[in-house]
TrEMBL record, chain A:
Belongs to the CPA3 antiporters (TC 2.A.63) subunit D family. It comes from Hephaestia caeni. One of its GO terms (cellular component) is plasma membrane. The keyword Transmembrane helix applies. It holds the Pfam family Proton_antipo_M. Residues 138-364 form the NADH:quinone oxidoreductase/Mrp antiporter transmembrane domain. It is found in: Cell membrane; Membrane. It is a multi-pass membrane protein. The chain crosses the membrane at residues 6-24, 36-56, 76-107, 119-136, 142-160, 172-194, 214-234, 246-268, 288-308, 315-333, 339-359, 397-417, 423-442, 447-469, 489-512. PANTHER family: NA(+)_H(+) ANTIPORTER SUBUNIT D1, NADH DEHYDROGENASE. This is Multisubunit potassium/proton antiporter PhaD subunit. Keywords: Cell membrane, Membrane, Transmembrane, Transmembrane helix.
TrEMBL record, chain B:
The keyword Membrane applies. It is a multi-pass membrane protein. Coiled coil: none annotated. Keywords: Cell membrane, Membrane, Transmembrane, Transmembrane helix. Belongs to the CPA3 antiporters (TC 2.A.63) subunit C family. This is Multisubunit potassium/proton antiporter PhaC subunit. It comes from Hephaestia caeni. One of its GO terms (cellular component) is plasma membrane. NCBIfam families: PRK09094.1. InterPro entries: CPA3_antiporter_subunitC (IPR050601), NUOK/Mnh_C1-like (IPR039428). The chain crosses the membrane at residues 6-21, 28-47, 74-96. It is found in: Cell membrane.
Length: 540, 113
C-alpha cells in the first residue's frame, strides 16, 4: 500500500461529500448535469469499493488471512487522532451500499428526483454518512457520521412533500434526535470509564477496567447499544419504521433498507471488538438481550407482515424481520453463524431494495387517484417546482407486457424474501439454520430461532402472495401501468445481483467465513490501528 | 459543585422528558432542547470536574494533573453544533406540518375533539 492507494480509504467519504457540495452550486434547472454528475459519482463509489476489496483481500484472495488497513486522518497517530479502518466487513458493507445506492439513484432518475429540490445533494450526503459510519474506527466520529446520514435522511424522507410525509418525518426526526442524545450519553459514560473513544484502544483497555467501574462501562455500552437498536428497528422501539419507510419516496425507501443495517453493523462490530471473549468482566454481557429482543422483533415483524394491507407496509415489516434475525444471530454468535448472517444481510438488503423499487410501478394503476397528491404545492417559497408541472409524457415508452415484467420481478422478489429455493434468500436462511445445528448441544433458543425463521418465511410468502394476487392478477379496467426502461433496469440489476449471490455462493461464503474469523480475532484490528503508517514515513 | 451540577442535569432531564411526551410539537422541541443541554453537561462531567484548570497544554513537558481533560470539551462543542442544526431542521418540519395539517398536534390531528 503506497502512494495514492493509501488514500483510497478516505475516498468513499470525501468523494460524495465534495460532489454534493459542488452540486449545491448549480441551479435545479440543470437537471441533466446534476443527474450525470451524481450517477458518475455513485458509479465511481462502486469502483472504489471494489478496489478497496482488492486492497483488504490482497488481490481478491478470498480465504487468505489479510490485515485490516487503517488510515490516519490528519496524520495524527492513533489513538490521539481519528482513524478510518477498512477491513473485510466494512468493505463488504461499502460495496453493498454503493450497489444499492447506484440502483436507487438510477431508478430515481425516471421521475422521482423531480418531485422536490436538491434530491441529488441529499442522496450523496446520505451515502457519505453511511460510508463514514462503516469506515470509522472511533466511537465519537461514528456519532458525527450518524448525524450526517440522519440529517440527509431527514431531507430525503421529506422529499416530495405532502401531509403523510411531513407528519411521518416529524416523528422520525423527533425519535432520531432523542436517540442521538442516548448515543451521546453512552459515549460519555464509556469515556468516563475508560478514558478513550478509539475502538481499538477501547478493545485493549476494557479488560483492564477495574471492577468498580464496570457498572458505568456496562451502563454506557447498554445505552449506546439502545441507540443502535432503535436505528435497526428492534421491538419495541420500531413502531416508527414501517410508517416512515412507507411514506418515503420509493428510491429513498430502497436506500433506507441499508440504514437499519448500519445499526446492525455497529452492533456486530462493537460486540466482536469490545465485548468478545477476551474482554474480561464485560464479555458477552448483552448477548442474551440481543437474542430475546431479536426474537421478539421477528415475531412482531411476522405478525405485521400478515396484518399489513399495503405492499410498502409488508416491506417495512420484512425489514423488521430481517433485523430481528440478524440481531438474534449476532447474540448467538460463533464463526459459522456470523458468516451465515453476513450472507443473509447482503441477500435480504438487496432483495428488499428491489421490492421497494417494484412496489410503486405495481401499484401505479391501482391507486391512481392517490398518487396525484404526491405532487403538492411547495411548502416554502424557494422550492423549485417548475419540473413538476411538466407533462408526464417523457416518463418513457410503453413496453408491451409490462405486467409480465412486473409480475416476473415480483415473483422473483417473493421467492427471495420468503427464502424459497433456489434463490439466495434460501441459501442464506439454510446457512443460518445449518450453522445453528452446528454445535453438539443445540440450545432451546436456537430451536426457537429456527422455528421463527421458518414461520416468518411462511408469513412473508403468504403476505406477498396475497398482495400480488390483489395487484397483478385482478383484471384492471384501465390500461396497464406505464413503465420506462430506466425504472426496469435498476430492479433487474438488483435481482441480477441476487442471482449472482446464488450462483457464486461458494466463493462468497468463503469470503464471509474469513470475515467472521477475522471479526473473532481482534488482535489484527488493534495491531493495524496501532501501527498504521503515518504519511511521510515508511509503512510496516 | 458536584451536587449543583448533578441537580442541574437531573432537573433539565426531568423537565425535558416531561415536555417530550406532551402532545404539542412546540413542547416536544423545547423538551429535546432541554434534554440536549442536560446531555452536554453530562458529557462535560464525564471528563471529571475541575475548576481553574486550562484544557490546553502549553509548550514543553507539562504535568497532566494540572490540566482539565480537553476531549469532553471538544465533544460538547460538536454535540452543541449538531443538536442546534437538527433542532432548527425539526422547527422547519414543525412549521410545515402546522401549515399542511392546520394543527400543532404531533400526530397531525387532534386526539379528542
Amino acid at each position: 500500500m503506497s502512494g495514492w492507494m493509501q488514500h483510497l480509504i478516505v475516498a468513499p467519504i470525501l468523494l460524495p461529500l465534495a460532489v454534493s457540495g459542488l452540486l449545491l452550486a448549480f441551479d435545479e434547472r440543470r437537471r441533466t448535469l446534476k443527474r450525470l454528475v451524481s450517477l458518475a459519482t455513485v458509479a465511481a463509489l462502486v469502483g472504489i469499493a471494489v478496489m478497496l476489496l482488492w486492497l483488504v483481500t490482497d488481490g481478491f484472495g478470498l480465504d487468505a488471512a489479510s490485515a485490516p488497513r487503517a488510515y490516519l486522518l490528519g496524520n495524527w497517530p492513533a489513538p490521539f487522532g481519528i482513524v478510518l479502518v477498512a477491513d473485510r466487513l466494512s468493505v463488504l458493507m461499502l460495496l453493498l451500499t454503493s450497489v444499492l445506492g447506484f440502483t436507487a439513484l438510477f431508478y430515481a432518475i425516471a421521475r422521482w428526483d423531480r418531485s422536490g429540490p436538491r434530491f441529488h445533494v441529499l442522496f450523496l450526503l446520505l451515502l457519505a454518512g453511511i460510508n463514514g459510519a462503516f469506515l470509522t474506527g472511533d466511537i465519537f466520529n461514528l456519532f458525527v457520521f450518524f448525524e450526517v446520514l440522519l440529517a440527509a435522511s431527514y431531507g430525503l424522507v421529506l422529499h416530495g412533500s405532502g401531509i403523510e410525509r411531513t407528519s411521518a418525518s416529524l416523528h422520525y426526526i423527533a425519535i432520531n434526535i432523542a436517540t442521538s442524545l442516548l448515543f451521546l450519553i453512552g459515549v460519555a459514560m464509556i469515556y468516563a470509564a475508560t478514558g478513550t473513544l478509539n475502538m481499538a484502544d477501547l478493545a485493549e483497555r476494557i479488560p483492564e477496567v477495574p471492577s468498580e467501574d464496570l457498572a458505568i462501562l456496562q451502563g454506557g455500552a447498554a445505552i449506546l447499544g439502545t441507540a443502535f437498536l432503535v436505528k435497526s428497528g428492534i421491538w419495541p422501539l420500531s413502531f416508527w419504521l414501517s410508517r416512515t419507510y412507507a411514506a418515503a419516496a420509493p428510491p429513498v425507501a430502497a436506500l433506507f433498507a441499508i440504514m437499519t443495517k448500519v445499526g446492525i453493523y455497529v452492533i456486530l462490530r462493537l460486540t466482536s471488538l469490545l465485548f468478545g471473549n477476551a474482554s474480561g468482566g464485560v464479555a458477552g454481557f448483552a448477548d442474551s438481550w440481543l437474542i430475546w429482543a431479536g426474537l421478539a422483533t421477528m415475531v412482531y415483524g411476522t405478525i405485521g407482515i400478515l396484518s399489513a394491507r399495503t405492499l410498502s407496509r409488508i416491506a417495512g415489516h420484512y425489514i423488521l424481520v430481517s433485523s430481528g434475525t440478524l440481531l438474534a444471530a449476532i447474540g448467538i454468535g460463533g464463526h459459522a453463524v456470523t458468516a451465515a448472517l453476513l450472507f443473509y444481510l447482503v441477500s435480504s438488503t438487496l432483495a428488499v431494495g428491489a421490492l421497494y423499487l417494484i412496489i410503486e410501478p405495481v401499484g401505479r394503476n391501482v391507486e391512481e387517484e392517490d398518487k396525484t397528491p404526491r405532487i403538492l404545492e411547495p411548502v416554502f417559497d424557494d422550492e423549485y417546482t417548475g419540473a413538476l408541472e411538466e407533462d408526464e409524457d417523457e416518463t418513457g415508452i410503453v413496453i408491451p407486457g409490462t405486467i409480465a415484467i412486473l409480475g416476473g420481478g415480483f415473483i422473483f422478489c417473493t421467492l427471495l424474501l420468503s427464502g424459497l429455493p433456489p434463490l439466495s434468500g434460501f441459501i442464506a436462511k439454510f446457512a443460518i439454520i445449518d450453522a445453528l445445528f452446528g454445535p453438539a448441544v443445540i440450545t432451546p433458543t436456537s430451536w426457537l430461532l429456527i422455528a421463527i425463521i421458518i414461520c416468518s418465511g411462511l408469513a412473508t410468502l403468504i403476505g406477498l402472495t396475497r398482495a400480488g394476487i390483489d395487484l397483478l392478477w385482478t383484471p384492471a379496467e384501465d390500461s396497464p401501468p406505464r413503465l420506462s426502461v430506466i425504472e426496469v433496469a435498476p430492479i433487474g440489476l438488483l435481482l441480477a445481483a441476487c442471482l449472482a449471490l446464488m450462483v457464486c455462493a461458494g466463493p462468497i461464503f468463503l469470503y464471509m467465513e474469513t470475515t467472521a474469523v477475522a471479526l473473532g480475532d481482534r488482535s489484527a484490528y488493534i495491531e493495524a490501528v496501532r501501527h498504521a503508517p503515518r504519511a511521510g514515513e515508511a509503512g510496516p | 459543585m458536584e451536587i449543583v451540577l448533578a441537580l442541574a442535569i437531573g432537573i433539565l432531564t426531568a423537565s425535558g422528558l416531561w415536555l417530550l411526551f406532551r402532545p404539542r410539537t412546540f413542547q416536544v422541541i423545547l423538551g429535546l432542547s432541554l434534554l440536549s443541554y442536560a446531555v452536554n453537561l453530562f458529557i462535560l462531567a464525564a471528563g471529571r470536574l475541575r475548576t481553574d484548570a486550562p484544557p490546553i497544554v502549553g509548550k514543553g513537558a507539562a504535568d497532566p494533573a494540572l490540566y482539565a481533560d480537553p476531549v469532553p470539551q471538544a465533544l460538547v462543542l460538536t454535540a452543541i453544533v449538531i443538536s442546534f442544526a437538527t433542532t432548527a431542521l425539526l422547527l422547519v418540519v414543525l412549521l410545515a406540518s402546522r401549515g399542511l395539517t392546520g394543527t400543532d398536534h404531533v400526530d397531525g390531528e387532534e386526539s379528542d375533539p
